[in-house]
Amino acid sequence: MSTRVPLGVSPSPSLMTRRDVLRAFGAIGGSSLMMGAMSACGLMGTSTPRPALQGQGRPPDTRVIVLGAGISGLATGYELGKLGYDYQVLEAREWVGGLCWTVRRGAEHTEVGGERQVCDFDEGQYLNAGAWRIPNDDEGVLGYCRELDVPLELFVNWSDANYMWEENPERGPLAGRRVRLREVKADLWGSTTELLAKAMEQGQIDAPLTEEDQELLVRFLVRAGYLDSDDLVYRPPRLRGSGNQDPYDLSALLNSGFATQVRSLNAGTGGPHPVFQPIGGMQQIPLAFQRAMGDKITLQAEVQSIHQTEDAVRVVYRDTRTGREHEEIGDYCVCCLPMSILQGIDVDLSPAMANAVNESGHSNSAKMGLQMKRRFWEEDDGIFGGHLFARSLQLGEFSYPSNDYFTEKGVLLGYYGGGQTAGLGDMPVQGRIEHVLTQASKVHPQMREEFETGYCVWWDKVPYSLGAYGRTPPPERLQQLSQADGRIYLGSAGASSQPAWIEGGIQSAWRSVETLHERVMQG
What we know:
Elements: H1 18-29, H2 31-40, E1 63-67, H3 71-82, E2 86-90, E3 102-104, E4 108-110, E5 116-118, E6 126-128, E7 134-135, H4 139-147, E8 152-155, E9 163-164, E10 179-180, H5 181-201, H6 211-224, H7 250-256, E11 275-278, H8 284-293, E12 297-298, E13 301-308, E14 313-319, E15 325-330, E16 332-335, H9 339-342, E17 346-347, H10 351-358, E18 365-372, H11 376-379, E19 387-388, E20 398-399, E21 410-418, H12 429-440, H13 447-450, E22 451-458, H14 475-481, E23 488-490, H15 503-521
Parallel strand pairs: 1-2, 1-16, 2-12, 13-17, 16-23
Antiparallel strand pairs: 3-6, 4-5, 7-11, 8-11, 9-10, 13-14, 14-15, 18-21, 18-22, 19-20
Helix pairs in contact: 1-2, 3-8, 3-15, 5-6, 10-14
């Protein structure tokens, strides 16, 4: 637990070190701000570099069965192929990608429980139902996009033009009002820098700074907070928008809770700019793998059992088109199935590994796409990408598309959050859509009039997934999951230290290929 350093008390007679600054960040902003600052300073861990295995010899006649054509299974098979292995990827679905699923016209699925949906978006409209954005430090994903010629475009992850909304009237006078993020940022910075600058001028802050440093700091505060250099009073700049409107009262801003979204760097999911997305949807990445791998992927192959001996692994799968069972025999197996699926399969694992698999969990994240007749957020509100900041509405992350600006129609990400929020997971599809339309209409009254059709993906109800991304396992379990269990390797994102839709799967795939290849080459 961090300890606050009161204003006017110098923590040290010497100048503050970077560690002192980070400690102060943690005291003021909490752990998320601390992580954001550490990442910006290069102190947080990053993705593991891609192993350089191509020059480490060619394997003898070695066959590997890869289970699952999500991003981890595809990366595993692709890398094994480059090393010269005979491999085959088995996938239960009719398409590749797993959680990299781009829902467009004609897509369909039947939830666990029986409700069936068929997407009737217009041609060209889509929803990234799982992974949807690529942080600029996800080296694995970006490397494959470059290697496989997947064109990218910028994803607008943070926009000052977007609205903030607080439902609870006890939060003060800003509750129930649409407030632009740029207004909140400008007024918070302006009011707080005004206080700091005046305190510096009056000598009320005993900071370990020279007189020259103090003068330079005041200049910075004047510039950062749009203060008048003569009287150090904050006066809203034109960039704030909203015409000649007076700034919001500092107390009202603090009570509203909006200040929790204002940071020097966006420490939320997606990370600092730039953030990317594939042109045409996230599924373009697995489709590029599929083009490169050709007939090495068998679709509609539902794994029934995985048995191993000292010399081989035997996988039995059911062809979901014919119902007939087939088998694949290999020297090794890399299982990239979700842990939630592996838990229900007849598989030969050691007690320690079986226990680690059974203790693994998945996020119950859910998403909803809502097609609108017109892009009213652009035409009426001047919003181009980014998110609505309205946690009290129980919408999770409500977001605007970062592509096809100024066209007629668009698909809003109406909901991205936990599947059981507001009891949504227990509702029929239409009930979930009704919840989002009702809540989002408080900010965008146009919603109902402009709404055409929706599609819901509650991942814990999706067959062959039964959950979204794997939760990061604790160190001891991760160590167990990262080891070979006889001739079986676990290569899914659920066996990774990277809590991500895509990057975690790639990192796990690389680890599995590296350890397997070293074993084969050592005989």
